[in-house]
Automatic annotation (TrEMBL):
<comment type="subunit">
    <text>Monomer.</text>
</comment>
<feature type="active site" description="Cysteine sulfenic acid (-SOH) intermediate; for peroxidase activity">
    <location>
        <position position="47"/>
    </location>
</feature>
<protein>
    <recommendedName>
        <fullName>thioredoxin-dependent peroxiredoxin</fullName>
        <ecNumber>1.11.1.24</ecNumber>
    </recommendedName>
</protein>
<dbReference type="InterPro" id="IPR024706">
    <property type="entry name" value="Peroxiredoxin_AhpC-typ"/>
</dbReference>
<dbReference type="Pfam" id="PF00578">
    <property type="entry name" value="AhpC-TSA"/>
</dbReference>
<dbReference type="GO" id="GO:0008379">
    <property type="term" value="F:thioredoxin peroxidase activity"/>
</dbReference>
<comment type="function">
    <text>Thiol-specific peroxidase that catalyzes the reduction of hydrogen peroxide and organic hydroperoxides to water and alcohols, respectively. Plays a role in cell protection against oxidative stress by detoxifying peroxides and as sensor of hydrogen peroxide-mediated signaling events.</text>
</comment>
<feature type="domain" description="Thioredoxin">
    <location>
        <begin position="5"/>
        <end position="158"/>
    </location>
</feature>
<keyword id="KW-0560">Oxidoreductase</keyword>
<comment type="similarity">
    <text>Belongs to the peroxiredoxin family. BCP/PrxQ subfamily.</text>
</comment>
<dbReference type="InterPro" id="IPR036249">
    <property type="entry name" value="Thioredoxin-like_sf"/>
</dbReference>
<dbReference type="GO" id="GO:0034599">
    <property type="term" value="P:cellular response to oxidative stress"/>
</dbReference>
<dbReference type="GO" id="GO:0005737">
    <property type="term" value="C:cytoplasm"/>
</dbReference>
<dbReference type="InterPro" id="IPR000866">
    <property type="entry name" value="AhpC/TSA"/>
</dbReference>
<dbReference type="InterPro" id="IPR050924">
    <property type="entry name" value="Peroxiredoxin_BCP/PrxQ"/>
</dbReference>
<keyword id="KW-1015">Disulfide bond</keyword>
<keyword id="KW-0575">Peroxidase</keyword>
Length: 159
């Protein structure tokens, strides 16, 4: 099991497809802040709250030079349905083999109703323009999380 990258470490490189079938790589965002957040499943209650909150604040993130990327094991098709249903404006990345989640330590052993299984642990990584980890959130609670990330980004971008 991969460890979670910590502040100051180089962000693990990745390349996967977004909801429109475009190849998206971390290297596409050199000299830009990236909010990389992992969530378990499209159109579930917590994941919907989180995606809608990031969408609501997306202009604020953009004004600070940040790109929001949500990552789940869901397919491109499922991402499109999720985006259309909830009018999301953020980019969703498809990670069906959970390679990106594993690289960031978000693919973990989980427990639910006495059963153990591997799945995505809700977590977020704020990646600096030099592609190092600026801040990490593990075991995220969806409600108000986007605002916490924005607050941290505002703090880090103060000159």
């Amino acid at each position: 099991m991969t460890n979670i990258p910590q502040r100051g470490q180089q962000a693990p490189l990745f390349s996967t497809i977004d909801q429109d079938g475009n190849q998206v790589s971390l290297s596409d965002f050199l000299d830009q802040w990236v909010v990389l957040y992992f969530y378990p499943k499209d159109d579930t209650p917590g994941c919907t709250v989180e995606a809608k909150d990031f969408t609501e604040l997306s202009i604020d993130f953009s004004q600070l030079g940040a790109k929001i990327l949500g990552v789940s094991p869901d397919s491109q098709k499922t991402h499109c349905k999720f985006i259309n249903k909830h009018n999301l404006t953020i980019t969703l990345l498809s990670d069906p083999e959970h390679q990106v989640a594993e690289a960031y330590g978000a693919w973990r052993l989980k427990k639910f109703m006495g059963k153990e299984y591997m799945g995505v642990e809700r977590s977020t990584f704020l990646i600096a323009p030099n592609q190092t980890i600026a801040h990490t959130w593990a075991k995220v609670q969806a409600k108000n999380h986007a605002m916490a990330v924005l607050t941290q980004l505002r703090e880090l971008t103060k000159v």
